[in-house]
Amino acid sequence: MATSSLAAPSRPPLSARPFFENKARAFWILQAAGWSGYLVLRSVVAISNGFSLEKIIPVIIEAILGYCITLLLSTLYGYYRRIPRIAGVFLTLATLSAATFLYASLNAFSFSFITTSTPGVSLILLLGTLFLNLVVLAGWSALYFAINYYLIVEDQMDEMRALELQASSAQLAMLRYQLNPHFLFNTLNSISTLVLLKQTERANAMLSRLSSFLRYTLANEPTAHVTVAQEVETLKLYLEIEKMRFEERLRPSFEIDPRAERARLPSLLLQPLVENAIKYAVTPQEEGAEIAVSVRLAGQWVQIGVSDSGPGLHEVRHSPSLSTGVGLSNIRERLAQAYGLHHRFETRSAPAGGFSVHIEIPFQLETVNREAA
Predict the structure, then answer these.
(1) What is the pLDDT of residues 242-273, one digit of tens each?
(2) Rounded CA gap, 311 and 355, in Å?
(3) Which of 55, 65, 76, 141 satisfies CB 3.0 to 4.6 Å to 46 for a cystine?
């Protein structure tokens, strides 16, 4: 028995990307909100011991100066990000130091102009504002580079996801294209046999059904999802072709839950399972075998079963051949590509005979996974 793990669907990760889709707008919003918050905070501290214009005006001037200086810093930092890293780091630190000194000098002068009768920049007043302004501008600079680094990482992750999707789609297309040549070979071989036996009417009927089946496979993308109802109709068309080969030896039956008919699954997912059952249950037995296909809806999961009344699992199933190479292993890989860990795949063989495959996939009405067309 082969089983792949089953897990609940994970929630999509939170992303700030919509806010930063327009980087210029996001910058101005953050700039205005940040300095407005700084103005409010400094004002509350300034008037905590009593309201006066002498306390409020320097704070307003400080916020305006900080807003203007950081606009200049953003322009310079944007240029530094495009030059070699070591030179950029050196220029960033030098610019931050110069901006801090300028900010502290202007703040000290504005404060002395309002609070003293002899405006000027004293060393004590300069040192008093230097540390606070360094913390403010260094924090603003750190936030600026952190946001830009985050956006760069997001862009790289988007590129990686796009490449992974392309690789996944290519692999899924390869897995799907493995099925058609194999089935086509078997059918054309049967048609050739009918022609040699001069059974032209049956050969023509088989050719007509084959063209209908191939028309369906060509009309759908190799990585497309289809509804259960579409998949079952295609499977019945395939069985009509095989029925002409095996006649009464092939006895198919279907049990489809009407509630699951609109559920979506990878196209041509069931055909190789039925083909596998025909090869190992119908072909080796003179009396043929029954093949049952069932689809049920159980909560948020679609349960699919394909079983036969053949001899069961034996050594020939594991022999290296084209059939086994593109049969069960193909389905396992396609399910893993489409649903990750969010599926179940089991094979069972009863001691008294009979072989069955059981699949469980999420109930989806839209194509939302990696195998989307």
Answers:
(1) 887 788 899 999 999 999 999 999 887 888 88
(2) 8
(3) 55
For residue 225, list its beta bridge partners.
Answer: 266
Amino acid at 160: M
* Model pLDDT, residue 345: 93
Q: Which helix (H) or strand (E) holds 177?
A: helix 123-196
pLDDT at 5: 40
Please tell me what DSSP assigns to residue 286.
Answer: T
pLDDT, tens digit, 9 for 90 and up, residues 66-125: 999 999 999 999 898 888 989 988 999 999 999 999 988 888 877 776 666 566 666 777
DSSP state of 301: E
Distance CA 94, CA 73 (A): 11
Give the relative orientation of helices 53-80 and 85-115 as an angle to the nearest 10 degrees.
170
Residue 261 contacts residue 229 (beta carbons within 8 Å): yes
H or E stretch covering 290:
strand 289-298
Q: Is the pLDDT of residue 315 over 80?
A: no
51's tokens = 């309201």
Give the Cα separation of 144 and 167 in Å (integer): 35
Interval 195-218 mean pLDDT? 78
CA 2 vs CA 70, 149, 330: distances in Å? 61, 44, 13
Residue 292: what residue type? A
| Structure tokens belonging to residue 183 | 């089935």
Question: What b/e string do you get for 44-65 counting C-beta neighbours within 10 Å, with b at 16 or more?
Answer: eebeeeeeeeebbbbbebbbeb
Using a 10 angstrom Cβ sphere, with 0-12 exposed, 13-18 middle and 19 or more buried, the burial of residue 344 is middle
**How many CB atoms are closer than 10 A to CB 162?**
10
d(CA 69, CA 161): 38
CA distances, 248 to each of 53, 137, 148 (Å):
101, 85, 70
Q: Which of 131, 82, 130, 85 is nearest to 105 (CA)?
A: 130
Question: Measuring CA to CA, how many Å separate 183 from each of 218, 251, 322?
Answer: 14, 19, 11
Q: How many Å apart are CA 46 and CA 50, to the nearest integer?
A: 8
pLDDT digits (tens, 9 = 90+) for 38-83: 888 888 877 776 666 667 888 888 889 999 999 999 999 989 888 8
